[in-house]
TrEMBL record:
Similarity comment: family membership: Belongs to the Nudix hydrolase family.
InterPro entries: Nudix_hydrolase, NUDIX_hydrolase-like_dom_sf, NUDIX_hydrolase_CS, NUDIX_hydrolase_dom
Domain of life from the UniProt record: Eukaryota
SUPFAM superfamilies: Nudix
Protein name: OLC1v1032420C1
Organismal lineage: Eukaryota, Viridiplantae, Streptophyta, Embryophyta, Tracheophyta
PANTHER family: 8-OXO-DGTP DIPHOSPHATES NUDT15, NUCLEOTIDE TRIPHOSPHATE DIPHOSPHATASE NUDT15
Any one GO molecular-function label of the UniProt entry: 8-oxo-7,8-dihydrodeoxyguanosine triphosphate pyrophosphatase activity
Organism from which the protein derives: Oldenlandia corymbosa var. corymbosa
Length: 160
């Protein structure tokens, strides 16, 4: 017997996937009492100073993601990578005006070679990288970073 029309016509229309939280990994790259910051040129936090970082890829460890993102964005190799803390934020102004729910993992690391100089590998996403003293950070900081620091967070190891 021949069917006419759409065999699936009685099935409900496919639903748009519900939005899911994403995982970001940002790196406090430390050099003495300085840290590496770059001016963002992307939608979220445009023109604010933020840490190198990006989104966790499927199957990656936090350490692998930190090393990959720092390399992709600055050309630097990192060492002594450690987990510090995590945040949970909803950004109202994500891509295409959709809100973005982001769990961000913050790592601490140092440069593997102190003579290596940061390169602005992705000039379309960043205005340039530089080392800034913890007591003289540039303004404006990326909002989630500013909130953490104002809340008393420090990425430096506690000296005993
Ligand atoms: N890079 C960076 N991301 C941060 C910081 N604080 C914070 O909450 N995040 C969150 C928000 C970002 O949307 C998310 C991922 O970083 P990103 O926005 O730099 O992502 P990206 O385009 O470089 O990454 P990708 O999609 O190419 O993997 O991490 C920070 O100081 N620096
Ligand atoms: Mg990034």
């Amino acid at each position: 017997m021949q069917h006419s029309g759409d065999l699936n016509s009685s099935s409900p229309a496919p639903q748009a996937k519900p939005p899911m939280p994403k995982v970001g990994v940002a790196v406090f790259l430390l050099k003495g009492d300085k840290l590496l910051l770059g001016r963002r040129l992307t939608t979220i936090g445009y023109n604010t100073f933020a840490l190198p970082g990006g989104h966790l890829e499927f199957g990656e460890s936090f350490e692998e993601c930190a090393a990959r993102e720092v390399k992709e964005e600055t050309g630097l190799d990192i060492d002594k990578t450690e987990f510090l803390t995590a945040t949970n934020n909803v950004f109202s102004e994500g891509a295409n005006n959709h809100p973005l729910h982001l769990v961000c993992i913050f790592m601490r690391a140092v440069v593997a070679d102190v003579n290596q100089v940061p390169q602005n590998v992705e000039p379309e996403k960043c205005g340039g990288w530089d080392w800034y003293h913890w007591n003289d950070l540039p303004k404006p900081l990326f909002k989630p970073l500013e909130v953490m620091i104002q809340g008393g967070f420090t990425p430096f190891p506690v000296s005993s």
